[in-house]
Write a structure and sequence with these properties.
- The complex is a heterodimer of chains A (564) and B (228).
- With 564 residues, chain A is of the alpha/beta class.
- In chain A, 38% of the residues lie in helices and 20% in strands.
- Chain A has an 8-stranded mixed β-sheet, sandwiched between helices. A 7-stranded mixed barrel of chain A has the order 1-8-6-5-4-9-19. In chain A, strands 7-3-2-18 form a 4-stranded mixed β-sheet, with no helix packed on it.
- In chain A, helix 8 packs across helix 10 and helix 13 crosses helix 14.
- Chain A is elongated.
- By secondary structure, chain B is mostly helical.
- Chain B contains 8 helices and no strands.
- In chain B, helix 1 runs parallel beside helix 5 and helix 4 packs antiparallel against helix 5.
- The longest helix of chain B is centred in the last third of the chain and has 30 residues.
- Chain B: This is BOS complex subunit TMEM147.
- Chain B: Keywords: Cell membrane, Endoplasmic reticulum, Membrane, Transmembrane, Transmembrane helix.
- Chain B: It is a multi-pass membrane protein.
Chain lengths: 564, 228
């Protein structure tokens, strides 16, 4: 009857391989072609001396829910999506501090915070609204950074797709039915690799040296003035930590000051009798680790020749008042001289400047200001900042709300004028004289477009130190820029202090699927089954007659009759 | 549960063919060979159509309805009819009555059509997590296609295999055959030219397939009366 019976063994073999192939194909269910794909940025994951902080997981595969869930519902397999506009900080605090189980958290930031969105135009009321959000964000960030969260926490920017998804989810939640496998809804999937420890993160310090005019026959070392800025950031979402104010403003100021002094020093007639040392240090948020290592690498002669050092920290969003922070007592002669010099220039520029003294405690490892690292080695130093109080650890280091829109170029330009003019008067001994070295409309005027272009670049570059490789393009760009201005540039690579450990996986793609519930599939199966049965009966009746249909069900008994 | 959805859509798309074969006397007379031969003729026809389309059709940038291109596509669609003619008349079948011959050929034709056009999208798309109604609509479309293929095969067998037909019915037969043969072009026009959505188009296809099936059944029984 079957003509291929003789070829049966080969048929079986090919059949088995076919079946195996089918199983392999079935096993890989494709998770592509989602309805929506969104870029998401993960909360930072780090350890301090082995104590874990931040979000400890990266993979996500749960149903989505909003804040309108029924109280008391089990959220351990739900990703709660929270737009920052409607943030209920008590809810987040409750879940995090009480360690309640949650599938995941997704925070939606307003579009304005997206530094990659170049086409966004900003309106005045938008900026005001974001100002209100700054405090909310700051509180949220503080909570998230210092908590140990065992589920993934992601940040995303609002856009049309995700807004429609969110309104859908809210509508579903309002009916009282949380989304689970049996009721359909949306499923959030992030397939990210397991976060791995970053082995030996490096911090890179860049220094630029501008030598002063040495008189012939003078064997003594010229005195040095140092201007130091830390350029790296630390924030809740490392892929979003651009730190425009803390400390992008400082970096821009340093580059502009370097440019101005290199112009002055290019002509031997105007070269001062002071060396200038420019330092771009890393490891700022971690108790100014980089600065400490950089200073340790100095030889004794250089260290002794430093007259004083000025550190710049957050000088981008102030109105009329700046602060000089010192660790030596204000009665100290050097401090008095520096402060008077700055005050005179400040008075001319029409801004106020205050002096704040904070004693250092050698036994306390916490270093709140960069100048404290200098002071610990007995070098006179001060920090110029708009902040009046020393920030706590990992505070004011470039968080989510530290954005281009909150930074004012004119503030930076005024700070540059203040610092450059004060240093110039000290170098050329024009203290108290009414001479402007860097006057506007002169060839040595501060260049606002230079400031603006570097500030724009900095506000689009996340700079968390452990995620910057040794030859990171941005670090190389800084080095190259400094080489344009300084005479000699050195790059120093160091390992970050062992107290901090970081984990990678900072950016991922979120796939949002609209899934049908299991009940729907079962229902569909039922409907299709009945349709096929009806079709079958219809065809049997029309082609063979009703008797045949009935005889189908009586076949076993009729067969028994036949055999008997 | 995405494999479940794939299974559901698969039984919607391919189930009716199996049910048709087992429910009607086709299974009793073992006409599987005919269906398989018809399926292979369909494959050959599809290949020829593909080559013709690739040679004569130019790819349009936008998705609009170009009458000239559609006319060309309709002409190439008549290769389908030629293939069906070949399957009905030229292939040697075992001794089965004309009644069952056109059903077997139509069934094989429709099954090959479904497999070729619907299996790949189903396998790739229905297994994903994302849920759409498209694959269920595609299954319904396959059902309509089955009915249309069988009606076309019936009309074809009337045209080419039956020698004594009532004179009045001949133009009606040819007209109906022309309508059924140009069905793909009509649906294309509805989708692109008039901008109908997929569910509406599928509804239209189901309706017309039932209507055409009824008409061809009446024609077939009308032609059968003189000889019986």
């Amino acid at each position: 009857m079957f003509p291929f019976k003789s070829r049966q063994p080969q048929m079986l073999d090919s059949m088995y391989s076919m079946i195996a192939l089918v199983f392999i194909l079935v096993a890989c269910v494709e998770l592509c072609d989602a309805a929506t794909v969104v870029d998401v940025y993960r909360l930072i994951q780090y350890d301090i001396s082995g104590v874990p902080f931040g979000s400890r997981l990266a993979t996500l595969n749960h149903h989505a829910g909003s804040l309108h869930f029924t109280p008391g519902a089990d959220l351990s397999r739900t990703v709660v999506i929270i737009p920052i506009r409607e943030l209920n900080i008590t809810f987040v605090k409750e879940y995090i501090t009480q360690r309640k189980p949650l599938g995941g958290l997704l925070f939606l930031l307003p579009q304005i915070f997206d530094f990659e969105d170049r086409g966004a135009t900003v309106s005045e009321d938008q900026v005001h609204e974001k100002g209100l959000m700054k405090t909310v964000l700051a509180e949220l960030e503080k909570l998230l950074i210092h908590a140990n969260i065992p589920y993934p926490v992601y940040f995303a920017f609002e856009n049309d797709d995700i807004d429609t998804v969110l309104s859908d989810i809210k509508r579903n939640d309002a009916t009282g039915q949380p989304a689970t496998a049996t009721t359909g809804g949306y499923k959030f999937v992030v397939s990210a690799p397991e976060p791995k420890r970053i082995a030996s993160p490096t911090i890179t310090n860049i220094q630029g040296w501008l030598p002063g005019l040495k008189a012939d026959g003078d064997p003594n070392q010229l005195p040095t003035i140092a201007i130091v800025v830390s350029y790296d950031t630390f924030g809740t979402a490392p892929a979003l930590s651009v730190g425009t104010d803390s400390n992008g403003s400082g970096v821009v100021a340093l580059l502009e000051i370097a440019r101005l002094f290199s112009l002055l020093y290019s002509n031997p007639k105007t070269r001062g009798r002071y060396n200038l040392l420019f330092g771009l240090t890393s490891g700022g948020p971690y108790n100014y680790n980089g600065t400490q290592k950089w200073l340790r690498s100095f030889d004794q002669r250089l260290r002794e020749s430093i007259d004083y050092a000025i550190c710049l920290n957050s000088i981008g969003s102030w109105d009329n008042e700046l602060w000089i922070h010192v660790s030596k007592p204000p009665e100290n002669a050097y401090i008095k001289q520096i402060f008077e010099g700055f005050s005179n220039v400040a008075k001319e520029l029409g801004l106020e400047i205050g002096l704040k003294h904070k004693k250092i405690n050698i036994s306390n490892p916490r270093v709140a200001w960069e100048h404290e690292q200098f002071s610990r080695l007995r070098i006179t130093a001060a920090t110029l900042s708009e902040l009046s109080v020393a920030p706590d650890i990992l505070e004011s280091t470039g968080g989510l709300s530290d954005n281009r829109y909150f930074v004012n170029e004119t503030a930076i330009v005024r700070s540059i004028k203040l610092v450059a003019e004060s240093i110039a008067r000290h170098i050329y001994s024009h203290q108290g004289e009414n001479i402007k070295v860097f006057a506007d409309d002169s060839s040595l005027a501060v260049n606002p477009s230079y400031v603006k272009s570097w500030l724009d670049l900095l506000s689009q570059t996340p700079r968390v130190a452990p995620f910057l490789s040794k030859n990171d393009p941005f670090v190389m760009a800084l080095k190259k820029e400094l080489e344009d201005h300084a005479h000699e540039v050195n790059v120093q690579h160091e390992a970050l202090d062992g107290m901090f450990t970081f984990y990678d996986s900072t950016k991922a793609k979120l796939n949002i699927y609209q899934v049908a519930s299991v009940t729907f599939d079962l229902l569909l199966l039922l409907v299709l089954g009945s349709y096929l049965i009806v079709l079958f009966s219809f065809l049997v009746i029309t082609t063979r007659g009703l008797d045949d249909l009935i005889s189908l069900f009586r076949r076993p008994t009729s067969r028994k009759v036949k055999t008997a | 549960m995405t494999l479940f959805h794939f299974f559901n859509c698969a039984i919607l798309t391919f189930g009716p063919h199996a049910v048709y074969y087992s429910a009607t006397p086709l299974s009793e007379y073992d006409t599987l060979g005919t269906s398989v031969k018809a399926a292979s003729v369909y494959l050959g026809t599809a290949l020829v159509k593909l080559v013709c389309l690739a040679t004569f059709l130019k790819v349009s940038e936008n998705d609009s309805f170009d009458p000239y291109q559609e006319l060309l596509k309709a002409l190439i669609g008549f290769i389908d009819v030629a293939g069906l003619y070949f399957a009905l008349t030229q292939l040697t079948h075992r001794n089965i009555s004309q009644n069952h011959k056109f059903q077997a050929v139509g069934l094989g034709w429709a099954f090959a059509d479904s497999v070729l056009h619907k299996l790949a999208p189903l396998w790739v798309g229905a297994r994903g997590l994302e849920f759409t109604w498209d694959y269920i609509l595609q299954g319904l479309e396959a059902n309509a296609n089955l009915v249309l293929s069988i009606s076309l095969a019936a009309l074809g067998s009337l045209m080419w295999l039956r020698k004594n037909k009532p004179k009045t019915l001949i133009p009606i037969i040819y007209a109906c055959a022309a309508i059924v043969a140009t069905m793909p072009s009509i649906t294309n026009y509805l989708r692109r030219g008039l901008g109908w959505h997929f569910p509406k188009v599928v509804g239209f296809e189901l309706f017309t397939s039932l209507v055409m099936a009824f008409i061809s059944w009446q024609l077939f029984s009308a032609c059968q009366r003189p000889s019986s």
